[in-house]
Amino acid sequence: MKVNLLRMIHCKEFSNEVQGGVEPSLVLVIPDVICDNCQKCVDLDICRDPSLNADIENLGNQDDEEGKWRCSACSASLNKLNIERRLLDLTNRRLISYQMQDLKCKQCHMVKNSIVSKYCDCTGAYVQTIGNQQPDKLRNQNLLNQMTDIKLFMQLIRNFASFHNFAILKDTTD
Question: How far apart are CA 86 and CA 34, in angstroms?
């Protein structure tokens, strides 16, 4: 049965993904989210945490209790406004670091020192130092890692904001 399932999704039986048990979903962990009720500090993985994404399974339910995120320790409701502010702050920091990055020469690895020149003195092209790699090629696959692709990060935040009705965050990412 396993072989048939792997054949259906076009994976080889002994590939690294199958043998290593690579998690197929993206990872975006918001560090140090504090519960207002019990003061417990947790890291929320907004992509893979089933309690945060429970409303995906309950799309037909429009009950007010279903849309609330709960603390794992005391089951109190987490403050979604504070989480949106944290995501907004993390997004702004990520964008600023991407825009302020240094460019380096592909051949001699020197940092670009002029604003106008398109090529390095050694005739090499300049490449980005951060924000240009796919998460599956990195050891730390968290999208908050500065090396992960900025377009993928912004798309994930935009989708998350629109799904959970974070208006300010959605406007920022658009």
Answer: 11
pTM for this model (two decimals): 0.70
Q: What H or E segment, with its residue span, contains residue 44?
A: strand 41-45
Integer Cα distance of 56 and 1 in angstroms:
28
Calculate Rg over the CA atoms of the chain: 21
Residues 6+ apart with CB under 8 A from 82: 33, 36
Q: Which residue has the tokens 């990195």?
A: 138
Written as six digits, the tokens of 28 are 């975006």
Residue 157: Cβ-neighbour burial (10 angstroms; 0-12, 13-18, 19+): buried
Whole-number mean pLDDT of the chain? 79
| Structural domains of the chain, ranges and CATH numbers in brackets | 2-173 (1.10.3200)
Cα 2 from chain centroid?
A: 30
Residue 28's Cβ-count burial label (10 Å; 0-12, 13-18, 19+) is buried
**In a 3-state reduction of DSSP, which class is residue 118?**
coil
Range 89-118 average pLDDT: 88
Nearest Cα to Cα of residue 143 among 48, 42, 55? 48
